[in-house]
């Protein structure tokens, strides 16, 4: 069962997401909060698998709440997905730097929303295509997010290939198909790369792939 916690200051948004999630047999909404401070307290109490959190809220915004979640070792298993609107790249950028595993736009279709929750629960990066390219373009101009020691030189050739494919948005199963290996081996390559590069999660691994030049942002 995937345990989800909703944090948004708009009751209508929360109720809409909850209505969708409550219809699924493998997903349970364990709590709701109207601001980041309340959400943080509930997260520590409930230890959900996935937190869906709005960026702009009163009392404590989603970025600060995400930063505190990422800094708490007791919450290492909590995957934060920020909720945003089109054109809010700067806020999403800050949320990923704070430790979010990915982001969703609020006008996402229900089927994609439910799929995204399951993807986040698995620990995969969740980067909505609509604004990912602009986000990455900004990332590569910033100071490094991840202190990676010796950098990509410490990765095997297979690990580099797997990371490059992950940065293009491929899942472990798709990486396995592309490299003609088993899904378990693909997952192992990704996990080892994350450990070597000290990436907190798959989203940070994807960002590092762009920052390092392993994958280049596409031109418009």
UniProtKB/TrEMBL annotation:
Segments forming domain Response regulatory: 3-121
Keywords, comma-separated and alphabetical: DNA-binding, Phosphoprotein, Transcription, Transcription regulation
Sites bearing 4-aspartylphosphate, chain numbering: 54
Superkingdom: Bacteria
UniProt-listed InterPro entries: CheY-like_superfamily, NreC/VraR/RcsB-like_REC, Sig_transdc_resp-reg_C-effctor, Sig_transdc_resp-reg_receiver, Tscrpt_reg_LuxR_C, WalR-like
GO biological process: phosphorelay signal transduction system; regulation of DNA-templated transcription
Domain spans labelled HTH luxR-type: 148-213
Matches recorded under PROSITE patterns: HTH_LUXR_2, RESPONSE_REGULATORY
Name of the protein in question: DNA-binding response regulator
Originating organism: Streptomyces cahuitamycinicus
């Amino acid at each position: 069962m995937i345990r989800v916690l909703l944090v948004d200051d708009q009751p209508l948004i929360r109720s809409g997401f909850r209505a969708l999630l409550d219809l699924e047999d493998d997903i349970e909404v364990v709590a709701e909060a109207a601001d980041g401070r309340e959400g943080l307290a509930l997260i520590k109490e409930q230890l959900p698998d996935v937190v869906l959190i709005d960026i702009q809220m009163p009392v404590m915004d989603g970025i600060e709440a995400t930063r505190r979640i990422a800094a708490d070792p007791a919450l290492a298993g909590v995957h934060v997905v920020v909720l945003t609107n089109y054109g809010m790249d700067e806020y999403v950028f800050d949320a990923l730097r704070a430790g979010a595993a990915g982001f969703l736009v609020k006008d996402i279709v229900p089927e994609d929303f439910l799929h995204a929750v399951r993807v986040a629960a698995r620990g995969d990066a969740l980067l909505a295509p609509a604004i990912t390219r602009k986000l990455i373009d900004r990332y590569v101009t910033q100071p490094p997010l991840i202190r990676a020691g010796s950098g990509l030189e410490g990765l095997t050739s297979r690990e580099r290939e797997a990371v490059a494919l992950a940065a293009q948005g491929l899942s472990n199963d798709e990486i396995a198909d592309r490299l003609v290996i088993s899904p378990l081996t693909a997952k192992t390559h990704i996990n080892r790369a994350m450990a070597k590069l000290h990436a907190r999660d798959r989203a940070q691994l994807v960002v590092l792939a762009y920052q390092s030049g392993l994958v280049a942002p596409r031109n418009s």
